[in-house]
Amino acid sequence: MKPLSLLSLILLVTGCTSIGVIDNQPLSKAKPGEPSYSLSKGAIRQGTGDISLILAFSGGGTRAAALAYGVMEEMRDTVVTIDGQPHRLLDEVDIISSVSGGSFTSAYYGLYGDKLFDEFKDVFLTQDVQGVLIKAALSPAHWFSDAGRTEIAVQYYEDHVFHDSTFKDLKRADGPLILINATDLGYGVRFTFIQQYFNLLCSDLGSFPVSRAVTASSAVPMLFNPVVLENYSECKGSEAAWLAAAEKAAADDQQLIEVVKGLNSYSKETRHYVHFVDGGITDNLGLRAIYEIVEVAGGPKAMINRLGGRPPRRLVIISVNASTDLSPKMDESRNPPSLEEIVTSVTDVQLHRYNAATLELMSDAVNRWAHELSTPKKKVTPYFIQLGFRDFKEPKKRNFFNRIPTSFTLSGEQVDRLIAAGRQLLRNNPDFQRFVADLGGVQTN
After folding, report:
1. pLDDT tens for each residue of 255-314
2. Residue 56: closest CA among 226, 250, 292
3. CA quadruple 296, 300, 303, 305: dihedral positive or negative?
C-alpha cells in the first residue's frame, strides 16, 4: 500500500484527537556522575585510532534498513591490516548517523552488536510491521484511546525490537556512537539524540527509550503524530558552553548561523514542548548531522581535542543512500495527476535536490577536514564512499530496487535482494576498493 493510501485509510478511521505522551525526564532526575551518551572525551569507541570511520544510513523504510544491514554484513566480512594485525573493518566504526528506516539498523547494532546478524532479519526486516500497526490502529480498542497512532508504534518497537532499552543501555553496550536524528517540526531544527542536545531541553537522555527516539526519527508527518518532549525550564539561563562557542564558530557561514539559531530556540520561554518527526525532512542521508556536529564544534581539530583523541591517518565516511529514482506515473498519460501523485512528486523532487546538495557539501567537507588535520609528518587521507542504487549498471536490476516502496512491509525476496545489494554496492565501489587496498585488506564471502 502506498503511503498516502495508507494515510487516507488511517485518518478516516482514527481521526480522533490524541495527546502526546511525555517520556523524557528532567536533568535533575539523572544520577550524579553517571556517564552520559554524548560527544565527550572517551565517549566514542575509536578502534585502533588509525582510522576514523563514520557510517551514514539514509531513510527509506525497511528498504533503507535492509540495505544498511547488507553494508554492515560486508564490513563484518572485510578484514584489514592495521599495525601488522588483522581487524574486522566493522570493528573500526566510530560513529553511525541515521535517519528514519536506517535508524532501526543503527540502533539495533548499537545495542546488540553482532546479534544484529543473527536476529535483526527475523525481528524486523521480514516482519509485516506496517500491517501490524494498521491493524492496531483499526482496532475498536484504539478508537477510545487518546494516545494516538505513534504510541502504537512505540509500543510495538518496545515489545518486539528494542525491549525497553534506554540510552543508558546504548552507553553500556560500548559500541560505536549512534546518532539517531529527527526533525523539530516547529522550527525545522535537525535534532540528534545525544546529551548535548538534550541539555538544551534541560532533560536527561540516559533514561529516554531508544524505541521512542527511533519512532521520532521515522514518524512521517500526518501518518504519525509527532513524538513530544517536554522542554524543561530548570536549567534555562545557563547557556551551554559549546553552543556559545558555536555562535563564534559560525562567523559568516549562513548555514551554521541557521543551525545555531535553531538550537538557541529551545531557550525561548514559549517553547514548553517540542514535536519531533521524521529526520528525513531535514537530512534524509544522515550526513548533515555529521557535518553540523563537526562544524559547530569548531572544526575537526576542535572535535578531536574534545574527544581526547588524535588525528587518524585515514578519514572515512560511507554514505548508504536507499533513495530511489524518480519515475512519475503521471508522465504516461495526458490526464491531470491525482492529489497523491502531486504530493508525492513535490516531495520526491525536493528530496532528490536536497540529497544532491548534501552529498556535494559533504564531499567538500571530507577533503577539507583531512587537509586541516594533516601535518607535514602525517598526512590524513580522505575517503568519501557513496553507495546507492544508481551504481547498478544493469537497468533491470536498478529498476527492481527503484520499484521497492518506502514501506515497513517488504517481501522476503525484496529483503534478501536488498541485503545482497548492500554487500555488492560496497564491495564493488572503487573508492572502497582503494581504501581496503591501502590497508592490505581482504574481503571474504
Report:
1. 888 888 999 999 998 999 999 999 989 999 999 999 999 988 888 988 888 777 788 999
2. 292
3. negative
